[in-house]
C-alpha cells in the first residue's frame, strides 16, 4: 500500500523552493490519495496539475494502482497550519475557542505562539474604540475565514 509519508515526501520535494506547501495528505483504502495544498500567495490549477503529474511520475502505477486528487485549500475550510494565519492577515475570522467561546474579528497579527484579533465593535456603540485580543494557538479549537463579497 502506498503510504502517506511516501506521498508527502514526493509532494514536498516537488514544491521545494516555492511558496506552496502541503496542508494535508490522505491515503485511503484502495490507494485513493488526496493531497491538499496551499500557498503564501495563491494556488492556481496549474500548480495542482504539475503536482499531480510529479506524484504520478514518482509512483509506479504498474506495481500498485492508485487514484490521485490534488486540490487547493478552500477558503471555506478551517485554518489548520500557523502559516495559513499569516497569509490571512487583514481578513475577518471567526474563532471558536477550546472553551467554546466564539470571537469574530479582523486578524492583525500571527506569530509562532498565537494571533491578535481586532474585535468587531458593537454597531450600537459607535464611540467605542476597537478592542484587540491575543489568542494562543492552544486556545483555538477552530478558525474560519469570513468570506466577503464586496
Explain how this protein is built:
It is a single chain. By secondary structure, this protein is an alpha+beta fold. It has helices at 4-15, 45-58, 82-87; strands at residues 20-28, 32-39, 67-72, 92-97, 102-110, 114-119, 132-136, 140-145. The strands form two sheets. It has a five-stranded antiparallel β-sheet. Helix 1 (4-15) crosses helix 2 (45-58). It is elongated, with a radius of gyration of 19 Å. It starts with a helix and ends in a 5-residue tail after the last strand. The model has no long low-confidence stretch (mean pLDDT 92).
Provide a short characterization of the protein structure.
The chain is α+β, with helices and mostly antiparallel strands and 150 residues long. It is built from 3 helices and 8 strands.
Layout: helices, strands, pairs:
Blueprint: H1 4-15, E1 20-28, E2 32-39, H2 45-58, E3 67-72, H3 82-87, E4 92-97, E5 102-110, E6 114-119, E7 132-136, E8 140-145
Parallel strand pairs: 2-3
Antiparallel strand pairs: 1-2, 4-5, 4-8, 5-6, 6-7
Helix pairs in contact: 1-2
Index terms:
150 residues, alpha+beta, five-stranded antiparallel β-sheet, three-stranded mixed β-sheet, 3 helices, 37% strand
User: Can you give the helix content as a percent range?
Assistant: 10-25%
Silhouette: elongated
Reading side by side through the largest sheet, how are the strands ordered?
7-6-5-4-8
> What series of H and E elements makes up the topology?
HEEHEHEEEEE
Low-confidence stretches: none
**Content of β-strand:** 35-45%
Mean pLDDT, to the nearest integer, reads 92
- Compute the CA-based radius of gyration: 19 Å
First and last CA, distance: 47 Å
**Count of individual helical segments:** 3
Please describe the biggest sheet, giving its number of strands, its sense, and whether it closes into a barrel: 5 strands, antiparallel
Count every beta strand, where a strand is a DSSP E run of 2 or more residues. 8
Task: Assign the structural class, choosing from mainly alpha, mainly beta, alpha/beta, alpha+beta, or little secondary structure.
Answer: alpha+beta
Amino acid at each position: 500500500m502506498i503510504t502517506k509519508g511516501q506521498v508527502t515526501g514526493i509532494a514536498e520535494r516537488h514544491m521545494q523552493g516555492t511558496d506552496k506547501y502541503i496542508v494535508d495528505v490522505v491515503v485511503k483504502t484502495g490507494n485513493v490519495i488526496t493531497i491538499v495544498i496551499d500557498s503564501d500567495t495563491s494556488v492556481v490549477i496549474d500548480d495542482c496539475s504539475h503536482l499531480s503529474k510529479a506524484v504520478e511520475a514518482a509512483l509506479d502505477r504498474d506495481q500498485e494502482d492508485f487514484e490521485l486528487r490534488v486540490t487547493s485549500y478552500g477558503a471555506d475550510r478551517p485554518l489548520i497550519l500557523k502559516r495559513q494565519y499569516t497569509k490571512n492577515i487583514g481578513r475577518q475570522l471567526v474563532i471558536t475557542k477550546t472553551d467554546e467561546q466564539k470571537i469574530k474579528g479582523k486578524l492583525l497579527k500571527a506569530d509562532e505562539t498565537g494571533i491578535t484579533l481586532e474585535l468587531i465593535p458593537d454597531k450600537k456603540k459607535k464611540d467605542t474604540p476597537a478592542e484587540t485580543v491575543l489568542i494562543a494557538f492552544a486556545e483555538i479549537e477552530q478558525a474560519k475565514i469570513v468570506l466577503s463579497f464586496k
